[in-house]
Design brief:
Helices cover 79% and strands 0% of the residues. By secondary structure, it is an all-alpha fold. It has one domain (53-252). Helix 4 (59-86) runs parallel beside helix 10 (197-246). The chain starts with a helix and ends in a 12-residue tail after the last helix.
Length: 258
């Protein structure tokens, strides 16, 4: 079928050429090949508008800004994972520590309870050690020591969460800085006279991409921050209640003054 069609087109073209020659006119030249040659000679290059083109085209300041955003995102992930691992009941108030201290206090052996706390270091062990170390000074001094140690351990736990909050607050500011830089580049392009549409669109893309990058880091970071913080507050309250339960037998300790 293709051979028949080709032969038909060829014969039709020859007949048309002979008829035109008979009338004294020149046979028209085929324009399909010329059009194809022109289209092959002038192939427009597609402008690169992807993410990496935006990053590289934003200049040295833009690259530094993107590196800062990337570092902020990595830091947020690190602190979220670290806090999620450390702020757990098994880490703050392990069941083995509680059981051993209860057994030692049931025997009335404060020194044994102190050794148990030293063998299993942690927030709750540090608080109990502070109380057991002042057992000879009376229950009021024990409570004050435990309260001071509890405040210190609480501050240590919250300091880990503070870094997540820093990342969640810093990333939108970096995104806003990228937006300002993109708008500066945009108006700079307009100020040169006839604007280059490609450069103008690239500047606007830089502004929008950095804003999206900053928000993409900030939204998950602030969500995890409040979630982990609420969990930490609940664990701290449980730890304080458990600590007071473990030291209640020390109320009957008599202080002997030499």
């Amino acid at each position: 079928m293709m051979a028949v069609l080709s032969a038909g087109v060829f014969l039709g073209g020859e007949a048309y050429a002979q008829e035109a020659a008979a009338e004294g006119g020149a046979a028209p030249e085929p324009t399909l090949t010329a059009a194809a040659g022109e289209s092959g000679a002038q192939t427009p290059k597609k402008a690169q508008t992807g993410f990496w083109a935006v990053v590289v085209g934003s200049g040295s300041l833009g690259v530094i800004l993107w590196l800062a955003l990337f570092g902020c995102g990595v830091a947020a992930i690190y602190f979220i994972v670290d806090s999620s691992i450390l702020i757990r009941p098994q880490k703050i108030m392990p069941q083995g520590l509680v059981s051993n201290v209860k057994a030692a206090m049931a025997e009335g052996d404060v020194m044994k309870a102190l050794k148990v706390c030293d063998s299993e270091p942690g927030p709750m062990a540090n608080i109990l050690s502070a109380g057991f170390s002042h057992v000879e000074e009376g229950f009021d001094v024990i409570q004050e020591s435990i309260g001071a140690a509890a405040d210190l351990e609480t501050e240590r736990i919250m300091q880990k969460l503070t870094w997540i909050s820093v990342c969640s607050n810093l990333s939108p500011m970096l995104g806003l800085l990228g937006t300002v830089q993109g708008m500066i580049m945009c108006f700079k392009t307009l100020a040169t006279g006839a604007p280059d549409v490609g450069a103008l669109a690239l500047s606007i893309s830089q502004a929008l991409w950095t804003t999206a990058g900053g928000l993409s880091i900030a939204i998950p970071a602030i969500t995890f921050y409040y979630s982990i913080r609420n969990n930490a507050n609940r664990l701290i309250l449980r730890m304080q209640a458990m600590t007071m339960e473990l030291i209640k037998d020390l109320r009957n300790v008599e202080v002997v003054n030499d």
